[in-house]
Write a structure and sequence with these properties.
331 residues, alpha/beta, Rossmann fold, Helicase, Ruva Protein, domain 3, 2 domains, five-stranded parallel β-sheet, 9% strand, elongated, transcription, AAA+_ATPase, transcription regulation, sequence-specific DNA binding
């Protein structure tokens, strides 16, 4: 989840839904053990937040929490990043040597994110480390002890990767002893308004969300999970006028999926059938008047927002208000 408080405690995980609370309860139990834990779940659900919360509860705030994105490390540098290297280990290396992530995490937790993307050669060495609790730095002749807890995370199906030969089967079984699946946001819809409100406050928006916005948020499936929701709230805060968040400023994908982009011409207004008498210009003017009135009602008489909903400029709206409704721009 992107709702990350730097304290990294479970109290920073926002939500009251039963499925989330059940996940937190299991995580608290996992914090009591030093065993390796595998966190699974879709991208953006907050696996690192849970990992840091488990770490904080067991190890305390002063112990190191070292995160490694296995998908971002170049394969040629993976060993030196994880295990460190001795001085003179290879050309271009720091002449003083360099401690690896395992050493930096001593006394704390090493978080291996996106472990499904770890190179196969490195997977074999990681398995040995998990089993023997010792390793050799690159270029080293003396083994070092491992004094950290391992928490791994992935958004991939490791079992299928193992079947396809893309992930070591023995490492998968070693990691899968204690696993926890973090629920996607669509399974905890009750938390969406609370999360959205929290993010908006962080971006400086304190006005309450209108009902139309809440409906759009809860109707959307959020494939990018909490990260996507946070980004959407940042967008709302940028476009909010007078500090008021509105559904019309949601990302296009959310608007299309929920129907929140429906213009007043499609949702709020029905023009009367062509009358027996009267002219086409009179009929069109009546329809246009109804469209404008509907847009103004929907936006709380906010001229800029109404113009946006109608797809016209604010000056054009003012002209039409004067022509069709007899209202001045100051009304």
């Amino acid at each position: 989840m992107e709702e990350i408080d730097m304290s990294h405690s479970f109290s920073s995980i926002i939500g009251v839904s039963p499925v989330l609370q059940a996940t937190i309860d299991v995580s608290r139990r996992l914090a009591r053990t030093s065993s390796t834990v595998l966190l699974t779940g879709e991208s953006g659900v907050g696996k690192e937040l849970f990992a840091s919360a488990i770490h904080s509860l067991r190890e305390g705030a002063n112990s190191p929490f070292v995160a490694v994105n296995c998908a971002a490390i170049m394969e040629s540098l993976a060993e030196s990043e994880l295990f460190g290297y001795e001085k003179g280990a290879f050309s271009g290396a720091d002449p003083r040597g360099k401690p690896g992530k395992i050493e930096l995490a001593r006394g704390g937790t090493l978080f291996l994110d996106e472990i499904g993307d770890m190179p196969l050669a490195l997977q074999a060495k990681l398995l040995r480390i998990l089993e023997d609790r010792e390793y050799y730095p690159v270029g080293g002749t003396r083994s070092l002890s491992v004094d950290c807890r391992f928490i791994a995370a992935t958004n991939k199906d490791l079992a299928r990767l193992a079947e396809a030969g893309k992930f070591r089967e023995d490492l998968y079984y070693r990691l899968d002893v204690i696993s926890l699946d973090i629920p996607p946001l669509r399974r905890r819809a009750d938390d969406i308004p609370l999360l959205a409100e929290t993010f908006l406050r962080r971006f400086g928006i304190v006005e309450p969300m209108p009902a139309q916005l809440i409906t759009a948020l809860t109707d959307y499936s959020w494939p990018g999970n909490v990260r996507e929701l946070r980004n959407a709230m940042e967008r709302l805060s940028v476009f909010a006028e007078d500090g008021k968040p509105r559904a019309e400023h949601l990302p296009a994908a959310v608007l299309r999926a929920t129907g929140a982009d429906t213009k007043p011409t499609e949702s709020l207004v029905e023009c009367s059938p062509l009358p027996i008498d009267g002219t086409l210009p009179e009929w069109l003017a009546d329809c246009e008047r109804k469209y404008i009135e509907a847009a103004l009602a929907e936006t709380g008489d906010n001229k800029q927002a109404a113009a946006h909903r109608l797809g016209i400029s604010r000056m054009t709206l003012y002209n039409k208000l004067s022509l069709l409704l007899g209202r001045s721009s100051s009304d």
